[in-house]
Amino acid sequence: MDVGEIIAIAVAGLAAGTVNTVVGSGTLITFPVLLAFGYAPVTANVSNTIGLVPGSASGAFGYRRELAGQRERVLRLGTMSVLGGVTGAVLLLVLPASTFKAIVPAFIAVAVVLTVLQPRLNRRLAERARERPQHGGAIAPAAVYITGVYGGYFGAGQGILLLAIFGVLLPQSLQRSNALKNVLAGTVNGVAGVYFVFAAHVEWGPAAIIAATSVIGGQLGSRYGRRLPTDALRALIVLVGIAAIVDLLV
Questions:
Q1: Could you tell me the pTM of the whole model?
Q2: Which of 19, 118, 136, 186 is most buried, by the most CB atoms less than 10 A from its CB?
């Protein structure tokens, strides 16, 4: 890797760690950057997933105060995240690479749409907070598992999906749901990453750069994320997502 590539991946990792902690969809920043430097889509996805694991842990640690009192939820839903993440990771390597390349533009499009709709979803979900069961009922584990499968397979937008699920099913504030989201999304990336280490080709240079800078991003997101202009972050995610779709389809 030359200096320009190292700098670009480092900046993308920093931004992804921050965005993942605050709103989710940081993969829509790092994944297209790796594609732009010529990495194959599956290799880029695998390396990116591994690289973002430390950033997820950093963001979850930064939100530890909002996790207070959610131990039961973390254990209950975290188990489903582990199972879903493993399932998605296995599917990524079992299915042909051509399948991934064909499906990912649609996944990115879904993530972009969810990113655009997130403010409206949050407002509507906040209005229904008192109507929801304390632990999400029987639907929450199944929904988290399905999201984990998606996250283990690709991952962009899984944070937004989790926030939408928690908004519908859990009677708590967005910040507490965001803390839970950081733990579960990080769990999915973590178990998928462990599987990829032993079963897939990993580009360790980019993965290490993303890992190092996403940790810093996770801390920035947890400390200053509430002060950042989320509309600007959302616009950046949308633009990068559209660029990634174009890159994959060309």
A1: 0.82
A2: 19
